[in-house]
Amino acid sequence: MPQRVLREKENVKHSAKRLIIITIRINGGTMKTAHIAATGQQFTIGKIICLARNYAEHVKELGNETPTAPVLFMKPASSVISDGEAVRIPAYSQECHYEVELAVLIGTVARNVTADDALEHVAGYAVAIDMTLRDVQNQLKAKGLPWEIAKGFDTACPLSDFVPASEVPDPHALNLKLAVNGESRQDGCSSDMINRIPQIIAHMSSIFTLEPGDVLLTGTPAGVGRVVAGDIMTAEIVSVGRLTIPVT
User: Fold this and answer.
1) CATH class of 32-246
2) Nearest-5° angle of CA 210, CA 212, CA 213?
3) Quick one: residue 76, left, alpha or beta (phi over 0 = left, psi -120 to 50 = alpha)?
4) How many angstroms separate the Cα of 115 from the Cα of each of 39, 54, 101, 107, 202?
5) CA quadruple 97, 98, 101, 104: dihedral positive or negative?
6) pLDDT at position 57, please?
7) Are the C-beta atoms of 127 and 236 separated by less than 8 Å?
8) What is the CA radius of gyration of the chain?
9) 36 forms bridges with which residues in the sheet?
10) Residues contacting residue 11 through CB under 8 Å, at least 6 positions apart
11) In angstroms, rounded to a whole number, what is the distance separating the alpha carbons of residues 160 and 177?
12) Binning pLDDT at 50, 70 and 90, where does residue 71 land?
């Protein structure tokens, strides 16, 4: 084989190796993980699938219609931040809202599962805040466009560590609370969900294969509202998790 061809092949091999190393380094710097503190388990976060309009009073406060089927949207894993990290409001929004939610961590592959079997795929539960650019979302909704710009920006998903599913005997008997600067804003119960967690998992898994590390956000109770730079949010689900998140 001519030397020129051999050199070209070697160059391709070296370039491929270099590309793989660069990709691993980039991913290694950005991958987000979900932690179950009690067991030491860690899951690389995959999809974050969210349920909108799952509490009747929240549907009313925003003037929306109660959906006949679950309304889904997604956030990228890059939107996740941990307890103590800050939400950064993007310059393209003037109305950033908080929404406290119960988060569900998938532990095993779930595809077309029934509601009866759905909870077997849950590894843990956490408290999350679905940060929403309400002005941007309303503009997108008016045009019939997706919401991801309003829901998926960097820092849009504060997320606590998870507790094992076995430590939450009834995920529909949990009190969700959020305060801003010490003032109570949201105080609801997961028993008020329109679609309960087994039905949510069954529905989602009929559309997407749910994989270990996927996180499901299950909707927010009434009381959502605006935060501005300098505010401090405290979100809590007793026996599940707590977040203290500043806003910048």
Assistant:
1) alpha beta
2) 100
3) beta
4) 26, 17, 21, 16, 5
5) positive
6) 67
7) yes
8) 20
9) 41, 162
10) none
11) 14
12) confident
Structure tokens at 11: 């160059």
- Beta-bridge partners for 42: 35
Residue with tokens 């997320």: 159
What is the C-alpha separation between 219 and 198, in angstroms, rounded? 14
**How far is it, in rounded angstroms, from Cα 195 to Cα 176?**
16
Task: Return d(Cα 232, Cα 235) in angstroms, integer.
Answer: 10
Query: Which amino acid, 127?
Result: V
Q: Is the pLDDT of residue 2 over 90?
A: no
Task: Please report where in the chains the tokens 């009434």 appear, as a residue.
Answer: 222
Q: What is the 3-state secondary structure (H, E, C) of 47-66?
A: CEEEEECCEHHHHHHCCCCC
Q: What are phi and psi of 131, to 5 degrees?
A: -75, 135
pLDDT reading at 162 higher than 50: yes
Joined tokens for residue 231: 């505010």
